[in-house]
Amino acid sequence: MPVDLPALCDDLAAEHVALDALVADLDEPGWRTPTPAVGWDVRDTIGHLAFFDEAATLAARDPAAFERDMSGGVAVDADGFMASVVERARAMAGSDVLAWWRSARSSFLATFRVLDPSTRVPWFGPPMSAASKVTARLMETWAHGQDVVDGLGLPASARPATVRLRHVAHIAVGARPFSYMAHGMEPPSTPVRVELAPPESVGGDAWVWGPEDAPDRVSGPALDFCLVLTQRRHVEDTALVASGALAEEWLRIGQAFAGPPGEGRRPGQFG
Questions:
Q1: In angstroms, what CA-CA distances link 180 with 177, 186, 193, 249, 255?
Q2: What CA–CA distance (Å, rounded) separates 159 from 226?
Q3: Is 41 left (phi over 0), alpha (psi -120 to 50) or beta?
Q4: Minimal CB count within 10 Å: which of 19, 118, 146, 155?
């Protein structure tokens, strides 16, 4: 089926609104609340989202400028480039970072909503389709939003699980080969079947990926799968069930995001 990019943008916009509601009324000390991402507070997290929404908009509107000013900078000094992203937000008050993110995400949505879903957009790794880029931004928004939820000590009800988790799970399944490469390992050719129970508020049939007869399987709540594959929970603190060595291995090393292997969470950290 063809991708409905405007509908996908609507889902991303809804994810923006859900996270915005958690930070909109923070005072300045609240913006400086540490999150489980080591060294980052809430302000750093929202600034990170703002920067990369802005970068993705530039990539779609002016690929040459993106490759010159963004990906070129990463190639020369990746650590310095990432440090500059954090420092940009730390030079602002929390309310100004929120205004930056609101502006950046609005421009992103306006830009991507009218693109052909198959349009190739440059990025810090291989180019991505417009549809994949929107899905990736949704995954990042949700995952970093979890850092905000955990950092502020909010209950799960502050940001209920929705049908949008299906996008997060989809990109996590697709990133399985990359998870191995990020660890310097050869991606296995054997598939893994994934069968996830949607959130209770969604209901319906299981969300499934992979061949039905695959010998290795992962099953359990969709929320738990998304938390583990974005490295926001340790698998031992979830109801996921892995059957087969490859399924177990994937849940240990899997990551839905690009870049080097993340540190993840310790067992019991949020269990």
A1: 5, 6, 17, 10, 9
A2: 14
A3: beta
A4: 155
